[in-house]
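Obj.: predict assembly geometry.
Materials: sequence records (below).
Method: joint structure prediction, all chains together.
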Amino acid sequence: MKDHRYLLHAGLLLLSGISLSCARVPKEVVELSYKMGEDMTAVHSSYLTVVHQYFEGLRRQRIAYVEQEWAPEFVRTWITDGLLVEVARGDTVWSTEQQDFVPPPAEGREMALVRTVGFWATAALNEIDAKKRSLTEPLDSQEDSLTVAINEAFNQLYRGNATITAHLNSLRKVQEVQDNALAALNVKDLRDKINSALIAASQRAEHELENVRKADGLVQGAERALHHTTPDTGETGP
Amino acid sequence: MTRGDDRTGGMGRRAHGSARKTDEKLEDQEARLLLETTVDLASLRPQVADQEAFSQLLGAVQEATEANNDVALLQQRVAELGNAVTSTARKVVGFLG
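Observations (raw structure tokens):
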């Protein structure tokens, strides 16, 4: 009996070995893996687009704040601090030599006034641009950092997928060479026959297992029924 | 003309002072804006396998791939050798016959 059990185990081991060596690696699996690499590129590109659009939305929100709230308030303040009303009245001009507001010169007064308005406007635009930059540059660097992280993650996926594709391809190569060798020995369909036999054996085993389970259920049911009909004598079993 | 230009340096400094006053006045609005437009970078960053573990896995698979390729090459060479031997043997037999 013990010998039979060893034989059974040895048989199972042999079957497992045959099954492993006979596992099919269809050429489509290599193609599928390759296609997944291509699809990954499309997902990668979409991911970057979504991230860029998200950051663009945030940048627009911040720029809108500058243009609609900050800049009008700043211009109001700057009109006062930058003496624009006084310049417009012709009471003062900007002196580049003294770096301060001075009374307009008698000669070239109009030109000095126009130049002053130009300086005033340039200083205002510079401040508005600087404000926009101060609010958008942190978003730019965050987007750059996120883009780097996404590219690194996808490069990792590409490398992983390429490695899997290459491995599947190597399995395929081994199988092809084996198929050719089997064909040369006129046992071309041996692998398929073994596989079919193993599948059939597996299905039969499942069917038999189901029968055993059913039988076990019947026995347990009978036991329960017997237990209900037999009066309790208070005796313990043998 | 840019910021800090010789001719507008003093003017630029004055404008900068006005900008600071504006910042102080709109402090609350700006704080709200920054809060609304804050990016949770950690949640957007792809959480992939750690580099070292990944490289180890890749290395193991690549090694197995190379071994498979070597096996395939060996099998192919053995088969070719078998064919060559058979062909030569046939020629020898034909020559002797």
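Conclusions so far: The first strand of chain A starts at residue 93 and ends at 95.
To do: check interface contacts against the pulldown list.
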